[in-house]
Design goal:
The protein is an alpha+beta fold. The protein is built from nine helices and 30 strands.
């Protein structure tokens, strides 16, 4: 009974320790004794994901391959099973008793160590390895590698990460899928589409392999310092030759599953240098060209012109702002329209971005457009550059002249100051021009005549005002045109505000087009049909293509309510509406 009680106590203590020790980290070897010409496989296995893995020094061994990292994560009957393994293949460098020292890893802030393992190395054996061993074949002939174009980029400098799967005979990959995809935190990222996986010939560590490019990504780091790239893990189904043969003597293939990973990678991001940084630097990194383009150099005061700030080149085009345009106060400047024409390849973002300003002059004259400067950092030359547009002059004619009376008003103020000096310094007036006080009759005074004429003038003004209001009230067509014009401007503004809401956008855009036609072509609401619009526009000598563009825009507004539309499509329809209205105004 005493022995039974002790056994039960020992079992309970062991069970309690196993429950308390939920995290395990251990080292396993393929054999404890091997020949001098054989290879040894060492696996460091943990049941929870850890960081900062530190392998032993492997004194007395030469690392032939490794570390190879593999992850197994599965759910069976509602229970999670996780395993992460670091694998090394070693070759002994001497005979005798060797020791594989402790490896360490941190899991949830705690440091775990493996137990040392004793290995006996004997004389070289006749058959150093089994070339048909599935484990050996897979580990020796399969590699998932993350190739990084630049591990020490500048902030906002493009780098590429290409994940390649290398394998060679006798392995064949029959199926594969990604079980963990890197999220690229702290990076602006863009995945390059790979329409179809292709097997190509390549060289890995000087030996011929087959390779499959699994994933390609372009990254722009958004922080400085050491940034970590999460690993890509693949679950593969591998065909291996077995020792059995079929009826025709061909070797029968057997399947094996394996999860491989590219491992974590660290990127050291350098900050942009402070030395030589321009004041107007807004974060552009790459190689660029810059210009300010004006579509008109001469125009009437009632017209408008456009100034386009354009940056073209290769770099982080979507990650910085263009400089602001500064113009004289006598030019009315509207909010710029931003547009991008950028494509992303393995070499980074390429294309152009634009800010298009609409400018309306108030007065006639010659307006100088000052040069606009744009600064960027070239990571290849490690130097800042500043580009400036050329100075231009816009000639505005046919309008009112600005009131440049600053000098006159200054003179008037000075004169007033002189006349309002202290009265104690004024000379005594010797000729006062006194007049005798004579009692005058009220009917012969200026006030009498003013009070007499004032009611007559007030009556005349009242009659004129009544006639003006009567004409306005009778001008029903003019009132309708004014209301329609205001509504057209209102709905165009509402359409621009609702570019993110498809229903509200197309409803406001269609109403704006209708009210524009009412205001411009005097179309009544009961005559408002597409056939009538076509007939009236044709009578106005408009080209067939302009009429069809307007009708197509109306039909597009009707169809878009019941079909999906993207932000780019809505922006395109809004720009088309502005273009159509502008073209009709020019022709009319």
């Amino acid at each position: 009974m005493k022995n039974v009680f002790v056994s039960v106590l020992v079992m309970m203590m062991t069970t309690g320790q196993a429950m308390a020790q939920g995290v395990s980290f251990e080292a396993k070897v393929s054999k404890r004794s091997l020949g001098l010409n054989e290879r040894l496989r060492v696996d460091f296995i943990m049941n929870e994901n850890g960081d900062d893995f530190t392998p032993p020094s492997f004194s007395g061994f030469k690392v032939f391959s490794g570390p190879n990292q593999s992850i197994s994560n599965s759910w069976i009957n509602g229970k999670r099973s996780f395993s992460k393994t670091y694998t090394y293949f070693l070759t002994p460098t001497r005979k005798g008793a060797l020791t594989i020292a402790q490896a360490t890893i941190k899991i949830d802030g705690e440091t775990y160590k493996t137990s040392p393992i004793k290995i006996t190395v004997t004389e070289a054996v006749e058959v150093p390895r089994d070339p048909n061993s599935p484990e050996y074949l897979i580990d020796d002939n399969l590699h998932l590698v993350a190739e990084i174009s630049n591990s020490r980029p500048y902030l906002n400098e493009a780098i590429t990460v290409v994940y390649k799967l290398y394998f060679r005979n006798p392995l064949r990959i029959s199926d594969g899928r990604a079980v963990e995809n890197p999220q690229f935190a702290d990076f602006w990222s863009h995945n390059i589409d790979i329409p179809r996986l292709k097997v190509e010939n390549a060289t890995y560590k000087g030996e011929p392999y087959s390779v499959v490019v699994w994933k390609k990504s372009v990254l722009y780091p958004q922080k400085t310092g050491k940034l970590t790239l999460e690993p890509l893990s693949l679950s593969l189904v591998i065909d291996l030759p077995s020792n059995r043969r079929d009826f025709f003597g061909n070797r029968i293939l057997q399947q094996s599953s394996r999860t491989v990973t590219a491992g974590r990678r660290t990127i050291n991001v350098k900050p942009l240098p402070e030395k030589g940084k321009p004041v107007n630097f807004f974060g552009a990194v790459g190689q660029f060209n810059f210009d300010a383009l004006i579509n008109k150099n001469s125009l009437k005061a009632s017209e408008s012109f456009e100034i386009k700030l354009k940056v073209t080149g290769n770099g982080n085009l979507k990650l910085f702002n263009l400089p602001e345009l500064v113009l004289p106060n006598t030019l009315e400047v509207f909010e710029p329209e931003h547009s991008e024409n950028v494509k992303t390849t393995l070499s980074g973002m390429q294309g152009n971005i634009e800010d298009n300003y609409t400018v309306v002059p108030r007065f006639q004259g010659k307006y100088p457009i000052a040069p606009v400067s744009f600064s960027y950092f070239d990571p290849k030359k490690e130097k800042y550059f500043t580009l400036r547009s050329s100075a231009q002059i816009v000639d505005v004619y046919g309008g009112p002249v600005a009131n440049n009376s600053n000098d006159n008003s200054s003179a008037a103020i000075a004169k007033q100051l002189l006349t309002n000096t202290d009265e104690s310094f004024r000379f005594i007036k010797l000729n006062p021009n006194l007049e005798p006080i004579v009692k005058k009759e009220f009917w012969n005074t200026k006030l009498f005549y003013a009070l007499l004429i004032f009611p007559i003038l007030l009556l005349i003004a009242f009659v004129l005002l009544v006639q003006h209001n009567h004409r306005i009230s009778n001008d029903v067509e003019g009132s309708r045109l004014r209301v329609a014009n205001r509504l057209s401007k209102k709905y165009l503004g509402e359409a621009k505000k609702n570019l993110k809401n498809k229903t509200l956008f197309y409803d406001a855009l269609e109403r704006a087009l209708f009210n524009y036609l009412k205001a411009r072509l005097k179309i009544k609401a009961d005559d408002f049909s597409k056939d009538k619009i076509t007939e009236i526009l044709a009578d106005k000598k408009l080209a067939e293509i302009e009429i069809q563009s307007f009708i197509a825009l109306l039909e597009n507004c009707e169809v878009a309510r019941y079909s999906p539309a993207t932000d780019a499509k809505m922006q395109q329809d809004f720009d088309q509406a502005l273009s159509v209205i502008s073209n009709i105004d020019k022709k009319l």
